[in-house]
Amino acid sequence: MIDSGTGLTILGSAIGGAKVLEKILGPTADYVGNQIKEWTEKKVNNTSNIFHNAEKKLGTEIDKPGRVPPKVLKGILEEGSWCEEELQVEYFGGVLASSRSGISRDDRGAYFVSLVTRLSAYQLRTHYLIYTAIKNHFDGQDLNIGESVDRRKMEIFIPYSVYLKGMDFTNEEIGNFHTLMTHSIWGLNKEELVENFSYGPSEYLKKKFSGAEESGIIIQPSNLGVELFMWAFGYGQKSNKKFFATTTEFKTDKKIIIEKTMKTK
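The structure assignment produced for this chain is given below.
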């Protein structure tokens, strides 16, 4: 167990100095209490990875006045400290970066911390695959994610072979593929992060999309699904309409393979 120094010093040292922590959090840094002294080194490292990710996403914005609401920090410290999976770090880091603003009561990030916490690693990665594919297909187009008519135009087909590779399943997980896939899709649907989906063999899917030459998933995005993606990559203070702007880029250090998906419209 870590048994020396203040909580601010301990966490600050892990991310390169207490000043970096104070820059990210603003006055909310005062809420970093001594309970961190009781944390294991692993929990400190997990949390520092999230802060490193947020620092990277903030870029030069970190030098502007701002603060992260205490409720957001509470969620990051309580939930993020247990997360080792890289994509979870990516999402928590983005929510932390997105939460930094000059509006003290803007605690929307607390909702997205809770949402990310509720998603399994499989659901989170599926969310990433879906919205990366949608961004790639419709980037630069004049589409409004808030309009149901436009969302129907954004429907895509993901072959199972593409989904398998993108999920990077182990042999054991491949043996449980259908259960993991349905867990992911239905879980995202429950949280209203996707809409209007179908999955199954090609002969079934061809009733909806004639180009479905193999088994797979047909799915549409949701407004909340895009909003989570924006928050997860540091764009939470921007409108969802910016999702398809060519200047809005979603970069990650994690190598996730997304091969050929298709538009159905």
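Interim note for the steering committee: The chain is about 50% helix and 5% strand. The mean pLDDT is 91.
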